[in-house]
Amino acid sequence: MKIIQTQPSLxxxxxxxxxxxxxxxxxxxxxxxxxxxxxxRLGVSxxxxxxxxxxxxADGMVEEMGRRGLQVTPLDxxxxxxxxxxxxxxxxxxxxxxxxxxxxxxxxxxxxxxxxSEILKQGKAxxxxxxxxxxxxxxxxxxxxxxxxSGNPLLDRTAEPHWRFLRRAMGEVLRRAELPCEIxxxxxxxxxxxxxxxxxxxxxxxxxxxxxxxxxxxxVLSECEPAASQAL
Length: 232
Prior knowledge:
Oligomer: single chain
Order of helices and strands: HEHHEEHHHHHH
Number of domains: 2
Distance between the termini: 58 Å
CATH topology of the largest domain: Four Helix Bundle (Hemerythrin (Met), subunit A)
């Protein structure tokens, strides 16, 4: 039997690098993406760039712009809010179950505390370094931890399509609207409620966390639309 390679493929690495630039604003909405230029800048051939572009198109991060090729997709405020609303429901279910298991199953609380604390530590370091893309990655990693300890294997895969759209949205919230330190403080409160075995508090905190981010992003993007129209 063939051994599966665990290291990321070159296409995955290119995908990650471009996602990082989209999330941190280096490639803002509407940016024209020229594959030859991206390949030269990243020091790779065109093939992994083409493969990465296919993944980015599937994720809704880039789109066709006729004969001109591809561009970074503008964010739709209403669509992003809808994704956040669904994520809030899934996250609420996940932390409820994770907190109940932390309360009822010996050792679970300690595991969640240990792994969650390490992600919090890295997240705060990313804030201190101004690394928005890394903050987004760690934010998703923390939520994935909650899905894992919920005991429901369907939650992670159900949430994944929404996360693909929301990676960019989270970057916009961090760069333009929210204080990153406050977001990680909220993460810490959610983790504490789970470890304490308090399902109701964990659910209330994470739903408020998700919906507040949704409303903040919607407001910021809506405010930017008139300015963008005037510039045309």
